[in-house]
Amino acid sequence: MSRMGDVLAGFHAAWEFASDSVLIRFERGIRTPRLLQALGERRIPLEAITGVTLTPGKRGTVVLQAVPRPGADPLMDAAAGQLKEGCDPYRLVLPAERETLAEYYADELRARLLDDGSAAADFLVDPPKAPLHFKAYDGKATFDGAAVSFRWFWTGASSAKWKAGDKTFPVSELSGVEWRSPELFEGHLRLVPRDAGLDERPGQADQDPAAVVFGLGYGPVHESLPFAASVLAAVRSASPSGAPPARRDPADIADRIRHLGELHQAGLVTDAEFSSKKAELLAEL
């Protein structure tokens, strides 16, 4: 950090340090998780980081990890604690012999952070760029930067979706995005219309024309999560100034917390991450 352009290379990624940010470049190798390959590189402003840890890893490695500030990164907001450890873009895994060097950079980063414990008012990390698209089980989702379109597949879409017809949702008419990982039960991407009340929305994603459902090989994380993050960032940018955030369905929040607890029990989410994300979810009620 004392010199512009210092680089710390690990497995699957390299961190380049600047005075006000960290540029993370992900490798394209076959061993690199597909989500990280899809992200390519990301510049993380220091104001988007709330902490830094260095812990022992598996099989002779150490893990340097930046803790994103709540509300600063649309990708992590959309993920809502559902990412597996190996897909976390804020982790840098290094050989154990580089621990001293990693500790130096960890200390340098900590010295530059201004952690006041508050959530960011605006996204500080750039979202994946549109246009984006992916195939879900029941339709194709497309985002051009201004609107989300769902085109239904006759082989998978429910009769409710066929009756509603193909849909297009301008981001100005949305208040949020819900992403449920395809690696969990009932994975889906659901758009939240700005003027729709909770009692007006179908309970199941396969019945909701504002949602697409995932399945085996459909809506993979490396395609659907960047899509959700890009839409989420566009929705926030299009929100009227001072408009209050939309209230989430309490049942959905409870379900998210339950699955977050499962990830925590499985060791995929740390105690601190679990507590922080649970507090964020409860704040949305």
Strand and helix layout:
Elements: E1 6-9, E2 13-17, E3 21-26, H1 34-39, E4 41-45, E5 49-56, E6 61-68, H2 74-79, E7 91-95, H3 99-112, E8 132-135, E9 139-143, E10 147-152, H4 159-164, E11 167-170, E12 174-180, E13 188-193, E14 211-213, H5 221-238, H6 250-265, H7 271-283
Antiparallel strand pairs: 1-2, 2-3, 3-4, 5-6, 6-7, 8-9, 9-10, 10-11, 12-13, 13-14
Helix pairs in contact: 6-7
Low-confidence stretches: 242-247
State the secondary-structure class: alpha+beta
Shape: elongated
- In quaternary terms, these chains amount to single chain
**Series of secondary-structure elements, N-terminal to C-terminal:** EEEHEEEHEHEEEHEEEEHHH
| Percent strand | 25-35%
Instruction: Compute the number of strand runs.
Output: 14
Radius of gyration based on Cα positions: 19 Å
Number of helices: 7
Could you name the CATH class of the largest domain?
Mainly Beta
